[in-house]
Design a protein that fits this description.
Elements: H1 6-11, H2 16-53, E1 56-61, E2 64-69, H3 74-95
Antiparallel strand pairs: 1-2
């Protein structure tokens, strides 16, 4: 298409508002999506850092320290610690 002036180009035969409005909305959505993705990435990095730092905890069972990495279920870890504690109590009772 040939336009004889810039005003004809921007008016686009009377449809310029729709054409340029569509470009503006599309551009705003793309920029918004990029900003939201970068924000989500920073949030995930922060939360992963917090999770990763808290993965290792030290528990004390009858004077001995146990280093246990946290899994998805803390209840499973607690039951594992209780099981270890019970085994040690049974072992101590049989040796006494």
């Amino acid at each position: 298409m040939n336009w004889s002036s810039w005003s004809e180009f921007f008016s686009m035969g009377g449809y310029g508002v729709y054409v340029w409005g569509s470009y503006f909305v599309t551009f705003a959505c793309v920029i918004g999506e990029v900003l939201l993705i970068s924000r989500r990435k920073r949030t995930l990095i922060k939360s992963y850092g917090l999770i990763h730092d808290s993965d290792k905890e030290t528990y004390s069972v009858q004077g001995e320290e146990l280093n246990i990495e946290q899994k998805t279920s803390s209840e499973q870890e607690i039951s594992d610690i209780k099981e270890i504690s019970n085994k040690k109590e049974i072992k101590n009772e049989t040796t006494s």
